[in-house]
Amino acid sequence: MTTPAPLIVPIFAMPFAVVETGTTGDLNAQLAALCLSRATAAHADPLASRDPLCFRSREDFFEWDVEAVSGLRRQMLGGVCEVVMAASSYTPAEFQALKVQARARFAIVRPNGGLPAATAPMASWYALYCVAAPPSAPDRADSATLRLYGVRNGTMFKDAANYRLRTPFGDSHYLWRPVSGQMAVFPASILHEVGLNRAQRDLLLVMARVRFAHGGERATLPW
After folding, report:
1. CA distance 108 to 155
2. Which of 61, 113, 177, 183 has the fewest CB atoms within 10 Å, measured from its CB?
3. By the 8 A CB rule, do 212 and 85 touch?
4. Which DSSP letter does residue 184 get?
5. Residue 43 three-state SS
6. Which neighbouring-strand residues pair with 137?
7. Is 141 in contact with 209 (CB distance < 8 Å)?
8. Which domains does the chain have, with CATH numbers?
9. Would you write out the chain's pLDDT as a tens digit for each of its 223 residues?
10. Helices (H) and strands (E) in the chain — how many of each?
11. What is the pTM of this model?
């Protein structure tokens, strides 16, 4: 008699999506020129330490009265909504009743600069859109990549039985290389960072904290 194989299923899984936004090269060129022109003290995040190798703007990017920004906002939030719908059990009608709230900023990661590890507070989803990406660095495969840390097994006892668990059960980190016109979407609670940019060109990103609320919900006040 053959013993049935054990049933193994993934639990505590975290979704990660790469969205092709459909933005054009012209739009990205306009966005790049706009962000570079506003990488000034007046637009800098007042809570961020001054770093000559990485500029982070205030979190009011989506509020700029600029056509290119409005177009990117529609593309980014539309992409986030597609991901959330695909990962949830809402019907289309139920999802349409939700209210989307978002705060966004841009960041310019210059050569030898990076973004430190952090989570996105007061949000459920995080979106990172690439306006312009530097070429890969031959000697550093992780140059200017988005690095997501798998910390859920941080207190797990390590031995030979769990040292080489296969995907999706392992605790290895995940790398995504930004590509112009693409957007990464993942839960805001995931610890993430942008690795040191070892290329000779800037990495330009737009990053948004996103959350959803029911129409009559009062607990989540608008930003």
Report:
1. 35
2. 177
3. no
4. E
5. helix
6. 140
7. no
8. 17-213 (2.60.120.620)
9. 678 899 998 888 899 999 999 888 899 999 999 999 999 999 999 988 889 999 999 999 999 999 999 999 999 999 999 999 999 999 999 999 999 999 999 999 999 999 999 999 999 999 999 999 999 888 888 999 999 998 777 778 889 888 888 888 877 789 999 999 999 999 999 999 999 999 999 999 999 999 998 866 565 666 7
10. 3, 10
11. 0.91
Token pair for residue 188? 């805001």
Distance, in Å, from the CA atom of 16 to the CA atom of 173, rounded to the nearest integer, reads 12
The four Cα atoms 89, 223, 31, 70 give a dihedral, to 10 degrees, of: 70
Amino acid identity of residue 118, one-letter, is A
Residue length of the chain: 223
Neighbours of 26 (CB within 10 A): 9
Calpha distance 77→93 (Å, rounded): 18
Separation between Cα atoms, residue 45 and residue 40, nearest integer Å: 10
Beta bridge partners of 54: 109
Q: Read out DSSP for 66-102?
A: -HHHHHHHHHHHHHHHHHHHHHS---HHHHHTSEEEE
Map tokens 């660095």 to a residue: 137
b/e code 188-219 from CB counts within 10 Å (16+ = b): bebebbbbbbbbeebbbbbbbbbbbbeeeeee
DSSP category for residue 25: H
Q: Are 176 and 145 within 8 A, CB to CB?
A: yes
Q: With contact defined as beta carbons under 8 Å apart, do 96 and 81 qualify?
A: no
